Amino acid sequence: MTGTDQPLRIAYLAAGAGGMICGSCIHDNALVRALQQRGHNAVLLPIYTPLRTDEENVSYGRVFYGAVNIYLEQKLPLWSRAPVGLRRLLDNPRLLARVTRSAAATDARELGELALSMVRGEAGRQLAELQGLAKWLGDEFQPDVVHLTNSMLLGMVHHLREVLPRALIVCGLQGEDIFLEDLEDPHRSEVLAEMRTRVREVDVLVAPNEYYAATMTKLLDLPPSRIDVARLGIDLEGHGNRTAEPAESPLIMGYLARMCPEKGFHLAAEAFKELSDRLGPGRVRFRAAGYLGGRDRVYFELQRRRIADWGLEPHFEWLGEVDRQQKIDLLHGVHVLVLPTVYREAKGLPALEAMANGVPAVLPDHGAFPEMLEMTGGGTLVPAGDVSALASAVEELGSDADRRAQLGRSGLQGVRRHYTAQLMASDTLASYRRGLSRRAAGAAT
After folding, report:
1. Quick check: 385 and 368 in contact, CB under 8 A?
2. Is the same domain home to 408 and 429?
3. DSSP H/E element including 44
4. Are residues 278 and 176 in the same domain?
5. FRET label pair with 221: which of 39, 171, 343, 409, CA 20 to 30 Å apart?
6. How confident is residue 430, by pLDDT bands cut at 50, 70 and 90?
7. Distance (Å, rounded) from C-alpha 171 to C-alpha 149?
8. Taking Cα atoms as reference points, which of 255, 263, 292 lies closest to residue 20?
9. Burial of 240 (0-12, 13-18, 19+ CB in 10 A)
10. By residue range, what is the domain housing residue 344?
């Protein structure tokens, strides 16, 4: 096994999100890129669909467990015997990106049977995919570490352990509780029971914060010491260069997240209305950006109609899905960012990005956010789901430039101190090294 100072061969398996730029994809890409910058031979292997990120994409050109093939295997058990050439054709990254862009491929409510099959691994219908992945890893890469992006991939662990007995098996934890909550019984109970069994074969578990470590400790029925924390980190390149705020008036409220009920866009819209009622027409602007998937188009159009019915359409701007520079430009052009998530957020990447640009964030008092603001001091908490409290917090910050500046400075310093990609890589490597040391000690006894 490698020594403590030697570069590691790290295979990181990351789940694509069907054409969407998602927080987990950005996290995984940033982590692998930081590991590469530290001299490790780290490869980012896409699962299901190609990865999309708004930063330099370091993912491998081949997709494993292609979404089309695993769907066909689930529906047509004999599909696993189809010619390898045909199956590989359906794993073409361009084809997968095109096919899955408009599909609700990651809607948990429709995926109970597939989720159960996947987490059963060698006993599931995707055995051919698992064997193909394990063979590639063994023949082509021979990793010291195999890092699964989240615990929905635990079905891979047993077979990977058999094929790669020397490899450290690591599993990240990144929001699976929300996916599981959306599953309907009996699938939810069956999937969770399988996960609780298979997680015992994992060498190292890593969560992005203390909140989520505690959440998954309970969900997977584990002792608290079983989960390490490697804090979420972002690549600071391009961030933090805001030279001045927008003009004092109108107050500009920003939103940067997927356009969906879970992220609370409707709550942000209602706060926009309440602020406009309080301050007067035209005294508040609302700028929003984020991915809009086919599943959420009806929801989003309903919110736009509400904004129009309130007479606020001239003061609302939706930028759609934005690239990295457009995202930074959006953040530079607002006084406050809101992210009123309905569910308990495991990561909250947009809040960190706002703080990295000196923009205070108004966040719900649940999930990862209390811990994040305790670490950074870059914003304020409001009761989750309370539109009036959200509007009041934005109004107070909008009327107090000194307070905004103080929170902006604290947030920027806090992100640089606690939430960079390089720090995330350091914490993750420390977990790898501890895991490798434990395995070496166990082998010696």
Report:
1. no
2. no
3. strand 41-47
4. no
5. 343
6. very high
7. 6
8. 292
9. middle
10. 251-418
Rounded distance between C-alpha atoms, residue 170 and residue 257, angstroms: 28
CA dist 163 and 169 (Å) reads: 12
Q: Specify whether 307 is located in the same domain as 347.
A: yes
Same domain, 87 and 228: yes
* Cβ atoms of residues 41 and 74 within 8 Å: no
Q: Which two three-digit tokens encode residue 249?
A: 């008036």
- 315: tokens are 């003061």
CB 211 within 8 A of CB 371: yes
| CA nearest to 407, candidates 377, 365, 381 | 377
Helices (H) and strands (E) in the chain, counts: 18, 12
Q: Which two tokens stand for residue 99?
A: 């096919």
**For residue 354, what are its two tokens?**
């706002």
Q: 19's torsion region: left (phi>0), alpha (psi -120 to 50) or beta? A: left
Tokens of 81: 């015997």
pLDDT tens digits, residue range 348-373?
Answer: 999 999 999 999 999 999 999 999 99
DSSP 8-state symbol, 251: E
The pTM is what? 0.93
Residues in the chain: 445
Is the pLDDT confidence value at 184 over 60? yes
CA dihedral 396, 401, 406, 407 (to 10 degrees): 40
Range of lowest pLDDT (89-103, 226-240, 241-255):
89-103
Q: Among 24, 21, 40, 23, which Cα is nearest to 32's?
A: 40
* Residue 276, token pair as written in the block: 């406009």
Nearest residue to 174 (alpha-carbon basis) of 146, 144, 208: 208
Tell me if 340 sits within 8 A of 268, measured CB to CB: yes
**Shared-domain flag, residues 257 and 225:** no
